[in-house]
Structure prediction request, 792 residues.
Amino acid sequence: MLRGRWLQWGITVFTLAVFLLVIVTGLFGTPAGNHNFGIVYVWLVWWALLKLLLVPLMGRFWCSVCPIPAPGDWLQRRAIITPRPGGKLYTVATKLLRRPGSAGARPWPKLLRNIWVQNLGFLSVALFSALILTSPLATALILLGFILVSLLVSLFFERRAFCRYLCPIGGFVGVYGQMAPVAVRVKDPAVCASHTDKACYVGSDAGYGCPYSNVLQKLETNTTCSMCGECLRTCNKDNIAFYVRMPGADLLDTRGRRLDEAFNGLMMLGAAFIYSVVLIGPDGPLKVTARAVGTPGWFIYAAALLAFNLVAVPGLFWLCVRVGQALTGKPKAVIGQFAARNRKRESLFADYATVLVPLGLAIWVAFTLSFTLTNLSYAWSALSDPFGWGWNLFGTASIAWTPYLSGMIPYLQVPVLLVGLIIAVALGLRTAHQHQQPSVAALPVSAFCALAVVGLLTLYMA
Amino acid sequence: MKRSDLFALLIVLIVLLGLPAGLFGYQALRTQAAGMRVIDITARKPEGGGFIPDHLELRAGQPVRLRISSPDVVHGLTIPGLGVNVDEIYPGKVVEVDLTPDKPGRYAFACTRWCGIDHWRMRGVIEVLGAAGEALPTEPPPLYQRLGIDLDAPTHPAHATPAAQPSAKEGVALNVALPAEVTDATQRRTLAPVDAFQRLRDDPANAGLSDDDVWNLVAWAWLKDVKPNALARAETLFARDCAACHGLDGKGGGPAGVGLPGMRKMDPTMPKGPANFTDAGTMLAASDVLLQGKLLRGGMGTGMPEFGSLYSDEEQWAMIAYLRTFLFRK
Prediction:
C-alpha cells in the first residue's frame, strides 16, 4: 500500500481541493474569520490535525500530501502517477540553463542548505500572525504566495527545495517530527554501502529520487523525511522499510546537533509564549495592536516579538548552557565514531537544544488544545456556509459557537506539559552524559524547561 | 501519456476548475431560484463605509430580497417606512429580508445597533419609483423652512420659567377654556411654550390663576394631543436613537456626547455639548416647529444626524411631545 501511488495522490488531490476552497473563500467570502471556511479550516481544523495528531504520530507525513508542492512536483515530473523512465525530473533550468557537463536542474545553493530561511520565514509570519489568523484575505494571500513561490522554485531547482529549505511550516514540522513513533530507514546499512546505484537518491524507473534530497543510507532523523514512500518504490534491494519505533528515538543521540534546528526549537518556544498571550490571552488592546499592522503600536509589538524570540529566549538558554558548563568544567573530548564527524560543528548549545523538541511539542500541543477546543465548533457552520453567504449545504450552518471540553482543557494540558518536561529533563541529562558531563550540568537547562512550563501554566490558568 | 495519468490529470482539472465553477454556480443558482430581484447589502461600520450600497432604487409592486451581511461587528437594520426591522446582523452571517414596496416614495434605512462611534451616520435611502419607473415627485420643504425659521440663530432663553414642574393633569383640572392658538395643533406648534404662557397670563380671563396654574395649562395644551402609545413609541425611539448623546434623563450627558462642541460652535454663549432637554430656559423658548426642524436636519455643532427621515410624521410629533415631558408632567 505504501509503495502504491494512488492513495498518496488521492489524499493530495483532496487537500488540494480543500486548499483551493480556502483560497476562494478567503478571497471572496466574508471577512469575518470565524464564519469563513479559510480561517476555520486552516487555523483551527488543519492546525489541530497537524499539531495534535500528524506531527506527534506521523512526523513530517503532512508534507507528503501537502497541496502546496504538488503542482511543482507534477510539472517537474511531467506526470502525475506513472514515473518517468529513470525517475527523470524536468525544470526550466533543464531546458534553458543547461551547460555542458551539467545535469540541467540546479541544485539548491550550498549556503542555504539549512533551515535558517525557514526560521526567518516562520518569524516573519509570526509578526503578522494576529492578522493572518483572523483575516481570510490575508490567509488566502499568504497561501497563494506559498504556492507561487513553491512553483517558481520547482521550476528552477530540483526536487522539493521549497519544502526542505523555505517552507516556514516544514521547518518546525521536521524538527518536531523527530518525536514521531514512525520512521522510514534502511534495513541494513551494509547493503547500502555496497550498492552504488543509489536509486533512492537519483531515482529509477520505479520512482523518483528522494524529493527532500536525502540519501537514505545517511538518514538518521525524521527532520527531512516526509515518509512519502518514494525510496520504498525505488530501492531495488528492498533495503528500506517503514518502522514503528519508540517515540523520540531520533533524539537519543544528542551529539552533533545543528544550530539552525536548535534555533527553530527556541523560536518555536518563544512563539508559543507570544501566541498564548496575544491570541488566547484576555488583553483586547494587545490583540488589536498585534493586528494593526503598520501602526506605531504594531512596530513596538513586532520589536518585542523579535527581541523575545531572537534575543531573550535564546540568550537565556545560552546562559543556562554556559552556567551548566561553568558548574562542571569543559566537557571531555567526545570519543567514538561520532567524534570525528561532529568535531567541527560540535556545540553544547545546539546539543542541549534537543530538550526543546519534546518540550516545544508539548507546549504547542497544550496551546493548540486550548484554542482549538474553544473554537472548533465554528467548523460546523463554516462547513455548511463556507463563504458566509447564507448557505446551509449540510444543515449545520446554524450550529452556534460552543466551546468543547472547556472544563477538561487544563486537565489535558497539565499532563501533556508534564510529560514534555519529564522527557526534556531526561534528554538534558542524556546530553550531559553523552558529553561526559556530570548530571548537575543539565540542571540549568532543566530549570529553563521547568520555567517555560510553569510560565505557560501560569498564563493558561490565569 | 498513459491512461492512468490522463485519468489523474482529469480529476485534478475537475478539482481546479470544477470546484470554483461549482461554488459560484451554486450561488448564482440560489439567486435565480429566489424568483425575485436579489440585492446584496454589506453593513460595515460607518468608518469602513456604512451600508454598501447605501442607495437603492426599487419599483413599486416589485418583490425584492435584501441579502444583508456584516463583515465586522453586529449591526441592525430598520426601514421604518417599509416596516422592516432586523435586530441583529451577525458578522459572517446573512440575513434575508423579502419585501414588496407598494407605495412610491423615499424610505430611509439605518443601523439600529451601537456599532461604532459613528453609528449614527450609518444610513441609506431606498427610492421606490412607480411601477412603470415614474420619477418621484418633489417633496414640499419642511415646515421650519416654509416658516423661515433659522435653526442655528441664537435663541434667547425664556424670560419666564415655572417655579415647579408644570403638570398637564393639574392643567386640565382647572377646566379653563383655552384660545385656538394654543389648542389647535397647527397654530400651537409655531408657538414657544413661554409665548403661550405669556398670552394666557396676559388674558384677563385668567387673572385669578397663579403662574403655576398657567404653566399647568401650558403643559396640558402641549401634551393633550399625544396618544399614550405614540408617547411610548417615542420613548423607545429616544432610548434607541437619542439617549447615547442626550442621556436617558435628557440632560445631555450621554457617553457619546462627551466632548462635542454643540451649539457653542455657532455661538459661544450657547451651552456646550448635546442639548439638555430639562433646561427650561432653552426648551420653553423653542417652538415645536423649531424642534422638528432640528430633528429633520440634524447638525447643531455636534454632528447630530437627521432622524426625520427615519420617523413618520406621527413619530416626529410624538418625539417632540416626549421631549416636552422632561419639563412637563403628564
